[in-house]
Protein 1
Amino acid sequence: MSSASAPALATSPTRETCKTKVCWSKDSWRRLPRLQMPEYPDNSSLQAAERQLEQLPPLVFAGEARALQRRLAKATRGQGFVLQGGDCAESFAHYSAESIRDLLKVILEMAVVLTFSATCPVVKIGRVAGQFAKPRSKPSETHDGQEIPIYRGDSINDLAPNATARTPDPQRMIRAYHQSSGTLNLLRAFTQGGFADLRKVHQWTHTFVKESPQYIAYRDIAQRITEAIAFMEACGITSKAVAQVRETDFYTSHEALLLNYEEALTRQDSISGEYYDCSAHLLWLGERTRSPEGAHADFLRGVCNPLGVKCSADARHDELLRLLDLLNPDNHAGRVSLIVRMGADKIDDALPPLLRRLTQEGREILWICDPMHGNTVKAANGYKTRSFQTIMREIETFFAVHRAEGTWPGGIHLEMTGDSVTECIGGARALKEANLADRYHTHCDPRLNAEQALEIGFLVADLLAKHQNNAT
Ligand code: PEP
Ligand code: CO
């Protein structure tokens, strides 16, 4: 039997006996019930791939994860706003320098708009360089009358609809690692090697959207920033002297779903002695795998990276509190971000009581709005899509609830790309269902294209500026 499908042992420690890290090890998750993990047909090749991954260098460093947690702690207290975005699922097929650069460009543009309009530091986090494993609502699907395993993301199996392609292959974890490493290398070069220099703010625009209203508005902001920098330089504050002008911090994140991969990249930090999952700076628990009794929560409680927890309108408050006890027993600010994905029709009812309960309990939470995952619909032509209008409605309600409760709307989490895909309907160009077939490339959920994402950036900047004005 593969180790991935081993049942929970009768002797597994219960939560009561295991509240601290005393009985945590990077493989203690293996004794607990697991959901959404693949069944590998061959245990020895799985173990060989795990050993191979363990020998490979870490992708991120503990010090970087700590720096992110400090920034998230500030954002928890209202001194910062998180912009987290990227593909629903990265893929081996769409791996190119252009698409990495274009995603970074649109995130940098949105961050500039938010920082400039709302005068608020923006913490930029990509869903990138590791976002390869997907939770699914069904384990299998029928294709040409044959039942085949469901696609679970490129680090697990292949999208092609046949039984061979869909068989989980542990070597795909190695390929995902190398792709993540190449992606991260390019992101580091772009963000620290001059591309993200604020003096280049004009050059981040995408060629295919230059004449849209968002880009005209963006060019205006870029012009004002350029003038401000020229003024600063005339005063002797040059980008040579000030790293914040020349470089930018960019962090990576993904769902910690495929625990074999996450365990193999977990390393003990030589400075603090603590364990960090060095596959990304921030890891999150998905809506389907966040049970406090499950393997995923057990794994994440022991690593010191900042964490996200996805949370739908159905989340039970007591269960969430137990999860927070487990993940953040000392209630450190910046350790846990709750990424609420309730849906535009439900957030109004579900968010206020949750917010009140956790505030009353004194929990340090950074609240992030994911307006994508509660708003997925099937178009009449069969495509999975999301409407720009509904996405904005959820974000607006998120801000309104925080305004009413006197709490800080700490960030947004988007599925988006720098490419000109046609996967979500609406936006300034009023994309219709009939356009979906034009460039529908996602391997999983529909993403905002660069133009739609920048439009969201402008609208959120307005909401954030208003929120700050009302609060002062
Ligand atoms: C996702 O972020 O792609 C995802 C599957 O989210 P959730 O766990 O919120 O459904
Ligand atoms: Co998704």
Protein 2
Amino acid sequence: MGAQQVRDVLGVRDGFAELYGAGPEGVWSAPGRVNLIGEHTDYNDGFVMPFALPHTTVAAVSRRTDGRLRLHSADVEGPAVELGLEGLAPGTDRTWTAYPAGVVWALREAGHPVTGADIHLASAVPAGAGLSSSAALEVVIALALDDLYELGLQRWQLARLCQRAENVYVGAPTGIMDQTASACCAEGHALFLDTRDLSQRQIPFDLAAEGLRLLVVDTRVQHAHSGGEYGRRRAGCEKGAALLGLDALRDVPQGGLDAALAELGDEEEVRRLVRHVVTEDARVERVVALLESGDTRAIGPVLTEGHASLRDDFRVSCPELDLVVDTALTAGALGARMTGGGFGGSAIVLAEAADTDTITKAVEAAFAAAGLTAPRVFEAVPGAGARRIG
Ligand code: GLA
């Protein structure tokens, strides 16, 4: 266990004891993620390739038997919030507590005998930055309760329950990528995930060994998925699949994009969405093939192509994300793209290790010149998935 993790465990244990009068039964952690490639494909039954960030949400948890749920976050001012399990109902909570409460609700709805909990959390996953702070929060609670109540659920089942919490309880129509990433990623690897059946393969992703680095640039433009744009894209994709007579856009056959676009006639918006999803699925498969053949540098242009597709066809980028990508490429990056849902949040930049300082400075200078809030830039090294740490 690293020094930071020891501090996390001790801090959250102390916080828990101060709040609730005794130490917790255990401490769990779950990471945020960045997505390497495969954006807006997960709700089309397609492919994604996220990896876990070293930034995690840590939760100290104990069971209760009286049907009460007490929630506290070190990152939010104020006392613990106390809720009755019987009163948990979708759409009733617009604050951060909807995420953990939603997980408890989803577990109980699925028939799992959860009778209450005391929870104290602390998170190092930047919120609203497109790095899946919500999924980290959901997954850490699901894993803790699965362990404590000995529910025996598989990781993919926890991810599905967390997605249900987010879709139904919180009301954000997201796919399954973020929760699965937080629950299933492995240190030093990217997760090649088929979101149709959640089958997965861990792909070794050790950039340092090849003299490369991957930067995350948080534009500081806040995004929110419960807002209408994400849902509109999703509905547009579903319309496309229905017009093509398919279950999901994943089912457009390889080589069948032109025929599908022709069939969509003058449905211009739907055609653009379909083109993104189909080409993006192919990009995930290209990146997997390149990584497995050891040709890591060659994934750069594929990432950049993915950005262009998200910007021009799917239309979920924003000027700040485009500025990061354009500036990084001009300053010598091998590839760059927005990551996550878009409309703000973060971009990723793949570069030779020796070039990352120049690129970081160029991006910071471009933001300053445009009068924007300074971006937050950090290196992302694939971390571990959710686990018990204390
Ligand atoms: C958000 C959602 C995911 C996924 C991405 C876009 O992160 O939570 O399910 O749809 O956007 O790839």
